[in-house]
Amino acid sequence: MSLRTVALLSFCVLLAACSKVTQENYSKLSAGMEKVQVERLLGSPTECSGALGMSSCTWGDKTSFISVQYGGDKVLMYSGQGLK
User: Fold this and answer.
1) Any bridge partners for residue 54, and if so which?
2) What pLDDT score was predicted for residue 14?
3) Domain limits at 51?
4) Looking at the domain assignment, is residue 73 inside a domain?
5) Whole-model pTM?
6) Would you say residue 8 lies in a domain?
7) Which DSSP helix (H) or strand (E) runs through 66?
8) Which of 6, 25, 57, 72 has its CA 20 to 30 A from that of 51?
9) Is position 71 within any domain?
C-alpha cells in the first residue's frame, strides 16, 4: 500500500471521527436560532431545499442525521435520528 493511500485512509477516518452530527450538538439546537448559528454548530449541511421563504437542511447520512426546518433564517423545527 502506498504512502498516499495510507494518508488518504487516515484522513477519512479522522473526518468520520470528527462528525458534528452528535446528540450533544443536537441538544444545543433550539427554535428561533438563526441559520448562521446552526451552521456554526453543525458545519455546512449535506443537503438543503426550500421555496417561498421556507427551507429544510440536513446534516449526516441516512442512518445518522439532523434535519432543521427554517422559516426565513430562523429555526422552526428540528429532528434527529441515530445520534450518539
Assistant:
1) 51, 71
2) 47
3) 20-81
4) yes
5) 0.79
6) no
7) strand 65-71
8) 25
9) yes
Tell me which residue has cell 445520534: 83
- Is 64 part of a structural domain of the chain? yes
CA dist., res. 21 & res. 23, Å (int): 7
Counting the structural domains of the chain, the total is 1
Output the pLDDT for position 7.
56
Domain of residue 74, CATH code: 3.30.1450.10
Report the candidate in 61, 70, 76, 80 with the shortest Cα–Cα distance to residue 19: 61
Please, is 1 exposed, middle or buried when counting C-beta atoms within 10 Å of its C-beta (0-12, 13-18, 19+)?
exposed
Contacts of residue 29, defined as CB under 8 A and 6 or more positions apart, other chains included, come to 38, 41, 66, 68, 75, 78
Residue 11 has pLDDT above 90, yes or no: no
